[in-house]
Amino acid sequence: MRWPESSTDVSTIESHAERDRAQQILTILRNRLSIREEKFATLVVANETRDPFKVLVMTVLTQNCTDVAALRAYRRLDEQVGVSVERLAAANVRRIERAIRQAGLNKQKAKGIHRFARIINEQYSGTLDPLLSGDLDSVRAELQQLPQIGPKTVDVLLSVFGRPTISVDTHVNRVSKRLELAKPKDNYERTRSSLMKLFKEKDYRAIPLLFMTLGREICRAHHPLCPTCPIERLCPYPRKTRKAAA
Question: Which of 1, 32, 133, 143 has the most CB atoms at less than 10 Å from its CB?
Answer without folding.
Answer: 143
